[in-house]
């Protein structure tokens, strides 16, 4: 699975899956080699024109991950399998654990500094 950042990168690629439900905000296009492009069209009332927004990799992964229908169909077509999603979930879990460790270190450092400040304040009297 890789993410396409420009619609013209689809030129020459074979499309394996398109999900463009009229009730969804975005359109998902997936190539047979696992390339993912997610776009959203926004109508600008001030300028009377439609703008196309291409999702960045982080937002596209989140959008695709939360779309149960697309995940099921991509697995059925063997374009993006359950193993790919398991790897993605593991990566998310590791990133969350790293954030928690960093937060805990910062919290402990702040508590230590506060302790030192109070110790100095009360022992100095």
Describe this structure in words.
With 125 residues, this protein is of the alpha+beta class. It folds into 2 domains: 1-80, no CATH class; 82-125. It has 3 helices and 5 strands, in the order βββββααα. The protein has helices at residues 57-66, 68-76, 82-123; strands spanning 2-3, 15-19, 26-31, 35-44, 49-54. Strands 1, 2, 3, 4 and 5 form a 5-stranded mixed β-sheet that branches. Strand 4 (35-44) and strand 5 form a beta hairpin. The mean pLDDT is 89.
H/E element sequence: EEEEEHHH
Strand content: 15-25%
Cα Rg: 23 Å
Number of domains: 2
Give the overall average pLDDT. 89
What would you call the structural class?
Answer: alpha+beta
Descriptive labels:
elongated; 3 helices; five-stranded mixed beta sheet; 125 residues; alpha+beta; 5 strands
Write the layout of secondary structure elements.
Blueprint lengths: L1 E2 L11 E5 L6 E6 L3 E10 L4 E6 L2 H10 L1 H9 L5 H42 L2
Parallel strand pairs: 1-4
Antiparallel strand pairs: 2-3, 3-4, 4-5
Short overview:
The chain is an alpha+beta fold. It contains three helices and five strands, in the order βββββααα.
